[in-house]
Amino acid sequence: MSKSWTKEEGPQGDICLGTRIRLARNLAKVPFPATANREQAKQVLKKGKELVESLNHLASVKYYELAEVDELERQVLMEKHLISPEHTKKTSNKGLILSENEDISIMVNEEDHFRIQVFLPGLQLKAAWELANRVDNLIEANVDYAFDPDIGYLTACPTNVGTGMRGSVMLHLPALARINQLENVLRSVSQFGLAVRGLYGEGSESYGSIYQISNQISLGHSETEMLEHLSRVAHQVISSERQARQYLQEQNRDENEDQIHRAYGLLTHARIISSREAMDLLSTVMLGIDLGILRDLDRGLVKKLMVEIRAAHLQKMMGQSLPAQERDRLRASLIRDRLSRQI
Predict the structure, then answer these.
(1) DSSP letters of 143-186?
(2) In the predicted model, is pLDDT for residue 197 greater than 70?
(3) What is the domain class of 5-242 according to CATH?
(4) DSSP state of 65
């Protein structure tokens, strides 16, 4: 089995951690999830389960009813970005179709009947769109979508009407933050008509200098046009981050090396550490690896740790719910153990 996108490196992977394509789709003549009654919601669930056989021609997938998935596992899925925070709550008549290597995730009865998601490591908007389109075509061969020939796909949220597509890239931008240029760059992204969000999307905060950039509307342009625009802007942001990293290597090198080694020292010696502090320190360590300052560390390990240190992952590892202080102790112990094996 190939590894999850969270554990792999892709094109421009030192800055672009991953790419996601999401398609919002609804069944014709069935109310959107927010207004559907119980029988209508069950009808959508049943249709989702029936899709597994067709999708297995493309990838090995399984179907889950979220009411039968325990709360901790739902949180793990959310921390991997495979389901939304909203999909972890009020799980009655909600489902999930998930591929074995987690590159395809289809939420059933989220805001729309089907939220088709494709994840790839690095900057791979075209490849992600092609895979998402293949998944979409397989589903559309088996269901009737809510579609208007003049408007396009009909969705619960007006901003998704049209193509129903949201493309996004997850970028690691620590150097821009370090030279106080991040706010200016992100402001320019917004001026290009794109949205900037935190680690878990709309309304979430940024941790570890990680940001998601995505298209805001899906009406009036084709999928290819929107993704080309997103790709151009993403490349500009990546270029700005590379210039910032070059600046750090040329200016105040001793100070920057000191901050990077201090971050590594804290991670390898701390006994209690919060999720936010750990993410910020791991971000600094990853920057140190990318700048060639920490040469003996595995970048892939640091990327994996950014996911594995989150609350649900830690509790799943221990097989039980843990209070915040115990999670902070376990998180520090896990980081010390993993990093110490690298040297």
Answers:
(1) S-B-EETTTEE--SSGGGTBT-EEEEEEEE-HHHHHTT-HHHHH
(2) yes
(3) alpha beta
(4) E
